[in-house]
Amino acid sequence: MVQRLSLALGLSLRQSNELLLAAGYAPIWSETAYDAEALTPIRQALAFILEQQEPYPAVVVDRRWNLIQANKGAVTMMEFLVGPIATGVVINLADALAAPGLLRPHLRNWREVVGYFLRSIESDAATDGTAETAALRDRLLSYPDVRTTMATLSLQPAGPPVLPMRFEKGRTSLQLFTTIATLGTPQDITLQELRIECFFPMDAETRQVFKRWALPRKGARPCDE
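User: That's the sequence. What structure does it adopt?
Assistant: Structure tokens below.
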């Protein structure tokens, strides 16, 4: 009956486990470490997806936007915008977007993008009801200007059919939109909560920038442009 209720309510695997625990039963859905041997075929499949997206950026993140995998296009773009990324540093893309001094100075339409993104975080926090997602929401709202932006942002659409991200640094401009995909038939909590985000250019100038960055170069780096 508990399992039927979970299905009828459209609960996630994590929420289904919590409902089972609340009813006095053991959880039935596993949460496997992403680097576990059992998930090797999944990691290989995701690496294939990221590779096919080159030279444009693509990343894999967990349910709270911690970066798990990234292709060369994503690394190149991030290092162009924020500088070299140290090995082993945990990167949270939500923090990178909302915090001052990272992506914000180079994102011309930051208010619109962060407003749209924060609404999705608030929806996640309301849906899963976990302290961790609520803490992420509260942390993002605590950054300067974020709460004010959320309070004053217009909900009326304007401009193109998708909200672009308009980056600008030096003489380089990038105009991108994103798609987000998930695994189709997950039977594990870790896999159900993965998101694959791919970035696509919205104009010829952006396409040319990424193609140029992908060419073998001697000495020069994208951050030199």
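Residues 1-30 form one domain.
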